[in-house]
Amino acid sequence: KGPGGGARNGGADAVDISPEGPDAYRFESVGEGLSTRDSAKVAWPHLAPARFTHPLDTQATRALKRLPFAEDLVRRGFGGMVEQAIYLDNMSNSVRVGPKQLPDIYEMLQEAKKILGLESLAVDIFVRQNPAPNAYTMAMQGQKPFIVLHSSLISLLSKEELQAVIAHELGHLKCEHGVWITLSNILTVFASQLPGNLGRTLGETFSASTLRWLRAAELSCDRASLLVAQDPRTVVSVIMKLSGGGAAFGQDLNPEDYVRQARDFEKESERSWMFRRMRDALTSQLSHPLPVERVRELDEWSKSADYRELVAGGTPLSK
Question: Which of 161, 169, 176, 218 is catalytic?
């Protein structure tokens, strides 16, 4: 799996920015800490991806959408075949979630879909035995959209945190990142086959651009997690636990302190040209941003005017 203004600093008084009523959403500034939610959730039945996507994600997607026939090629050709193959593998080697199979996870999915305006999209969740806590989706609204959760991830996270992970993967599906990143990878391979230094240079350029886009896409989906959790602490806790958490001591981990760690990292990495280069070297070959960068971006967006306006304009979530 990004990320403004808003209630970043201030005193301890709550600031009510939404319509009056029992479902009003309040933002509370806690020193330099995370904003808080103290009321019922809201949903966005007609949520457009552009309302929460990271600017780099939006820019790259718009550029590829201008290529004639490219989207249809990915959907009908490569994407469809791969999606079917992975779906069959999941059906044969995993446990499919449903109303009578892991019903709590099924309900988490249904609520997250409703919040993100994906209620009409049929999405399967599969639980797969794996010691590495992870989750993934092909990120394409094809014939068989799916999300895979590793068993170790379920053991590591609380119910709220697990729903935030499901929301992150739904964010990929909402934005259909799989379509556009597949196309970007195809262009990278094509460019690298051109003769001589031109092919090598173009291939490296496309590859670096695709990795930057992948990192921005993850930030977009962290925002989707926040839209479902509607409490930054929950999403920060997920990132923190995936970085250094454990089932035996998870209750002792502190999201607020992890945000301070993220800010400290930013200050340290900006101290000199050499530290900035070291930071860039850490991230340049990664498909995901550094965990502390994800936390910092999420913290900023949770206090932005864009997020506040979104929540204020949401409709009370009906069960």
Answer: 169
